Task: structure prediction
Amino acid sequence: MYQPMLFVHWKQARMLLVPFVLAAFALPLLVVQGFGAGDSDVSQEAYRILANYQVWLPYFPMLAASVGAVLALTAWNWDHHLGHIYALSLPVARWEYVMLKMGAGVALALVPTAAMWIGAQLASGSIVMPEGLRAYPNQLAARFFLATLMSYALFFAMGAGTIKTTVWIVSAVLFFFVGGGLIDILLGAFDPTMSDVNVVASTVSWLARAGGPFAVFTGNWTLIDV
Amino acid sequence: MGSALWSAVLVTCVAGRLDAQVGPATRPMEEEAIQQLLALEAELDLARAGSVAATYAAVLERVEANRKPTVLRQVGPFEVLALVEQGDLAEEMFTDVWRNDFSSVTGSPALESSTFAFEWWRTAPSEVGWTLTPAVDGPTMRRVEVSRLYVPGRDRLRSSVTTAVWSALRGDFPDGSSMRDWLGYADYLPGAGAYRVLAVTPSAANRACLAGDTPACAAALGVADVAAQPEWFTREEKQRMLGVAVQPWMGRADRDEPDVRACLEENVESACDRVVGRLGWVEMSTAPSSVKTHLLWYAIRVGGDGAWARAVERADANPAEVLVAVSGQPLDQLLRGWQVDLVRQRPDVHAGLAGGGLTVLFWSLVLAGFAMRSTRWRSA
Result:
């Protein structure tokens, strides 16, 4: 059952994945562009490499989030088109169907991850590393895979619902961020000891902290570090 | 000063206009206008002073209204002031920092006279110090007031406490002493942090030091003749070193000396080498201050009992001599040991990635559970 699910998902996602695979391959190579040629001042090299990397750093988690979103939306695409008849016609339980579908997406996430791993290996092999710095292509690819999975799982759960449910969830999240100050005031009025609590900041901090779902996005994305 | 200047400008303008319009015959009117302006200025000054006083009174009132009961705890040789509900936390943090980082310090006048005001806010510091302020005025009071928004975890809080204790300790080296100038004002960093700043600071000497070259470490840290190995330093780096040494408060080189001028103004590298070579040690070394601090604490750890007191006694000596006296080891041996220790503490930059995998797995399963319970399926 898994193989057909994987094949169907692949057919849905492959054309959309192409630019992301190319980007995953090229991004590490772009980061090291112009370094390690041996003609630059060695005393400046470590600083230049790290400073240059900071410019590119946000693109790695953004790319992982985008790949996850594309995979998740294509996972449910044909179900939505066919009114979920295909799923009901299969001799599998609902939970099994969802897990198979999710598993197919996880397998497909390996494609851009592999592209990033190859790109990162080539990038780190192409420069002479200054003393004190090291390349981490494996760790970067692993983090990219985990972040893609997290994004995939999030959009997969949202994609499984109706548009109405998704709109409700997104609206609730937006309301929370916009109206967070109001919540703080209400909490303060209800209990004075809560008057200095910042709900939005605390929530964001919790989501991005170790153990939170988005911690993988806020971690260290460096290909080259000490 | 500002208001006086404005008045002068205003008076000049008015006087000029009066002169232009009505001529010298109206001199009494002009003087009257000046008197009126001066009176107006006095009134404005009074009003401004009143406004400042009112603001200050409002602040005090607010402080009084927000004042909460505090508790004073003794940790090692110093005291910690904290809100009653944070007293245990404060004591725990300072005791941890004292035991693990600074317990080898004995006989520190600066620390013995210090009281640390500790507060860990739950939100942004919108009302900085309102609760502790009335109790914390004084030259020996040091604040560790941080927001959980920026310092969310205990690790970061501990780091803030460490920095505060180190800042107090640094006071044992008098202003203007060689050790004070050499150490600078950097934070106290653990080994991993010191390794990172040394590795990313642009300098060939730093690179060579990390590779295990002990003389390069001495030169990078500014405790040896930096001109002895000219290939490690660029002309700009030597000019920076000299630029600090000629400052009046340093007074280690004469700006009018021909070699100094040739180095700083005419970019003559050989002149830089001659002058910097004469300095012996430099304040503005290529290794950041936090790395020098790390070396000092390594020397103190190696030196054992009374190491800090030995450092303070020799605060005015050449930093290399101080390090030797503190550690009881020759400089070369001390630097070799320190370099090995520093490299061993190289940070694990991707630490927690495996744990991150488990976290992602957990959240993915939770979200998959939501997907199984989707409204579309239930309505189908």
Summary: The longest strand of chain A covers residues 134-135. Chain A has a mean pLDDT of 86.
